[in-house]
Amino acid sequence: SSVDSAIEAIRAGAFHYVTKPVKMADLRLLVKRALEKVTLVREKESLKEALFSQNRPAEIIGNSKAMLNVFRLIEKVAPLDSNVLIQGESGTGKEMIARALHQRSGKRQQPYVSFNCGGFTEELITNELFGHEKGAFTGATETKIGLLEAAHRGTIFLDEIGEMPATMQVKLLRFVEERTLLRVGGVKPLPIDVRLVAASNQDLKEMVKAHTFREDLYYRLNVVMIPLPPLRARPDDIPLLIRNFLEKYSRAFGKEVKGVSSEVLDILSRYPFPGNVRELENIIERAVALSDEPEISARDLPSDLRELSMRSIEAAPRLTLEEMERKYIQEVLIKTNYRKSLAAEILGLPRTTLWRKMKQHGLE
């Protein structure tokens, strides 16, 4: 029936409906009201977007859909005291996200403390996070306050939480559940009020399945997850990031480098960036330091990048991003005679990430 059709149309989003015969005066009035409603909705959305843009972290660059989703999560989560897990590849800016959460929280006037869990033994991590009492062990000549205690009433950022030894995970879980700590050699539990933000460049959920990360700790940390996209997944942000880094290093080096050539932009837009934003920053810093012109040209880029880019362009229909990444890492390793520390520095990757990528790509 016509009534059923009208109801269905309204449910589907129609502004109104009219029955025959149609009076032109009524139709004009309905059209006018519909246009007014559309204008109001658009103004409301525009105002909301403008307010969001003003409040979003200026230090984190990006206008891509993926990054706008990150900004919205920061805006929602920052005022809360919930634990947050930031997950993303090395070089994507996880610590910047952690700082942005702290600076937009009610704890922003309180301490912000960060600690990288990678490459340390359980004893060293325990001492750094929990501190120790005087005389707790040989050489403990005075009491040391740990980082958790130093972050009291503020925020602590634990980077590369996936690298934490299993026995240390148990100690951290106990702290997260009880919100008290014992310094090494201490007998009196100390109540600690701290927001915990953790980050990992590994998939912790997969680590839980592989029994290399505690499931109970994972769920305690992962109250809210902020996934950070790799740079290759947001190529539209590359020009913005280039401009930001050009301004930063032009000021730092007392130069007036205003832009990059179209060739450079093309090379960088096609490159897979295994080291993500950190690697792009390293490339621009180097280029500004070397350039004597107001515009960065291809000759200011590392030769490996120029050569790989040309081959990648030629092979683009046949190579996936993963294959391009493998090829570049392999070439850097060959150029550095497999000196992993130097290769990691050139790639803008932590050594542990380089080793993992070498294993992933069969480059051991």
Task: Please write out the topology.
Elements (H helix, E strand, L loop, with lengths): L1 H10 L12 H32 L9 H13 L6 E4 L6 H10 L8 E5 L5 H9 E2 L11 E2 L1 H4 L4 E5 L6 H13 L1 E2 L8 E2 L3 E6 L3 H6 L5 H7 L2 E4 L10 H16 L5 E2 L1 H9 L5 H15 L4 E2 L6 H13 L5 H15 L4 H8 L3 H10 L4
Parallel strand pairs: 1-8, 1-9, 2-5, 5-8, 10-11
Antiparallel strand pairs: 3-4, 6-7
Strand order of the largest sheet: 2-5-8-1-9
Domain count: the total is: 3
CATH first level of the largest domain: which class? Alpha Beta
Would you give the CATH topology of the largest domain? Rossmann fold
The number of helical segments is 16
* Largest beta-sheet details: 5 strands, parallel
Alpha carbon gyration radius: 27 Å
Report the β-strand fraction as a percent range: 5-15%
> Which word captures the global form?
globular
Could you state the order of secondary-structure elements as H and E? HHHEHEHEEHEHEEEHHEHEHHEHHHH
CATH homologous superfamily classification of the largest domain: P-loop containing nucleotide triphosphate hydrolases
Number of strands: 11
Task: Look at the helices and sheets and give the structural class.
Answer: alpha/beta
Separation, N- and C-terminal Cα atoms: 72 Å
What level of helicity do the residues show? 40-55%
Mean pLDDT: 85
Q: Low-confidence parts, pLDDT < 50 over ≥5 residues?
A: 48-54
